[in-house]
Amino acid sequence: MSEINIKKINKYYGSNHIIKDVSLDIKSQSFTVLVGPSGCGKSTILRMIAGLEDINSGTIAIDGTVVNDLAPKQRNIAMVFQSYALYPHMTVFNNMAFGLKLEKRSKDEIEERVHEAAKILQIEDYLQRKPKQLSGGQRQRVAIGRAITRKPKVFLFDEPLSNLDAALRVQMRVELAKLHDQLDATMIYVTHDQTEAMTMADEIVVLDQGIISQSGGPMQLYNNPSNLFVGGFIGSPKMNFINTKILSSNSKGTKVDLFGSSDIVIPKTSKTSSSGDQVTLGVRPEHLLVNKKSSSSWESKVFVVEKLGSGTFLYLEKEGEPLVVETEGDSKIKVGDSVKVGFDPDKCHLFDSSNNSFT
Amino acid sequence: MNIISLISTVLAGIFFFIIYFRLFNFILDYIIKYKIISHRYENSIRSIIFIAPAFLVLFTFILFPVFETIRLSFYDKFGREFIGFENYLWAIKDNEFRRSILNNLGWLLIVPTLSTFFGLVIANLTDRIWWGTIAKSIIFMPMAISFVGAGVIWKFIYDYRGIDDQQIGLLNAIVVSFGLEPQAWLTIPIWNNLFLMAIMIWIQTGLALVIFSAALRGIPKETLEAARIDGASEFRIFWSIIIPFLEQTILVIWTIITILVLKVFDIIYAMTNGQWQTEVLANLMYDWMFRGGGDSGRGSVLAFCIMIGVIPILAWNLYRHRNEQST
Question: Chain A residue with minimal CA distance to B232?
């Protein structure tokens, strides 16, 4: 049991309003990912939970206790930093034991807990080494180990994988997910990488310029983004956006213009928009169909082909709008070819002029 | 006229070295090109060419005087007659010499330690207050004052007038205001050494402070935050994280000040001239070398002693430097 309740917190740096009235409930034993572009305030929120930043107004409560005025060490949290932040002059063992020594634990208990954590993280062989003798991945394990040994109520991760290479990042992602299952602890994870958010989170909180843009489960955010920002941020490659306008609408759906040459009915509606309004049509690359039969389609020229093996991304242009399309891995399409692109209206999203989603 | 000759000398010097480097470089290129010397030696020969002038200057002005001093220490006061170890035997028996050795040891123990300690603590504390930069500037200021100048300033602090006179020394003014008797501070044996050391500490703390302040910036903020989350108190962070981080810097500052203290001369010369048991090696050497007609033999022995004292510190420094590079 260790839920976190954040109520209307604000943070200013001088005259800059960094965190704007953010409220958030984090369930006990959940893996919550705060995600957003740099400067959105995600790290600041994490540091406020940790007690490394003052809270200008609002409250943060861990397990029902308001911790605003408690020092980091009184909050029963542990944090893993992007730069690992290991103590360079201490051995791996002492790095992991430092917090326990400060808690004045017995020697046997320290020994036992460090070895236990080292076993989980498979760093038992390195316990007598200094951090500089370790690789980046090993250092990050030590940093995680330092957090585990203290058996905190809440784990805070501040972009822990950003300094690792791509292969290691994938591997650590899996291990962190496993670790969450093993430890049953509440984990809050900050990243700018939507893939990390999608793969690890129980709950994703998308932040944009100091406010929560949308929060929910990964698939909820993927399938029903509540606004243009979340639509564009979640998913890789990005959702295609096509500027268009409403031709007509009724209770079943909205008919929009398609490149001035045809039209399409999207089964989504909005109470605030009416005929003639400018809207944005959003459709993910994986939901565009290439050279297949569909209700509405058009011809486009391919100017870049990206082969990933498992799939192929085609970069097209239509009426000045860039489009990315995903097709099968063994596709024979070459640069300069003309392809027929169509889509399923059910998989499309519409965003009004204030960037809110049609439902 | 003087300025013109100065400028022309400097220009001639520069011109000479340009010619030197060009010429020898050209010759080496030529030799290599026509394979008179194997290609393998090119790098080592070229480095010799470039090091040679600096080495010559160093040899003439540092190494040669060292050997000359050692030679003179075996000769009589005029440097004419060889007298073996007589000067050394004199030194061992001389009370002032023994006193100087003791005092120098005291200086070596106390001044570098306290300067480094104060520098480190003040650097840490000034980082936490808004007027830290002002405080640092004030503490650094004595560095800009010459030792003799510092001596003059501190003379006013330790000054003593007859018991019936008005005391103008700061320290005595304080003592008198508490109703105690004024003291001639610089004449109280043992203690007067500490009063003189205070001047050096006052000056050198600034140096340590500035270097530590810069080094403190190099400690990653996240590491300190990690320690804070681990539950370390500010004192514990200072002791267990910051000091180990600054270990190299501490050693460097400690050696710089140690070497400086070993050569301490100006402060003693200006304040007591070695009276009242405050004598140190450098002042004693100056006394023998240049006063009362001068005795180059005994003076050289004392100079040699100072050098012997510096050598282990330098050697250790070089050793450490090499170790650092290899890891």
Answer: A102
